[in-house]
Amino acid sequence: MVIECKHVWNYISEYLDGTLPEETRDTVQRHLEHCEICSAILDSTRNIIILTADDRVFELPVGFSERLHARIDLELPST
Question: Which candidate, 19, 24, 22, 17, places its Cα nearest to that of 8?
């Protein structure tokens, strides 16, 4: 069975949770073995889960919030 990237993306969460049916998991695994894009999405999703589960608090540099909002204002068109 061949699976397209868009279907793999829909399965990423269940794949990481280990809740996919065995046949689907095997198909997704085979796809991930040769698809760099889907593998990168899997790794990124895994990293986000790890980072958001980390209960440590990091102090942001002074002025970070202002710089972030200024950059967002530049990048996003006005509505």
Answer: 24
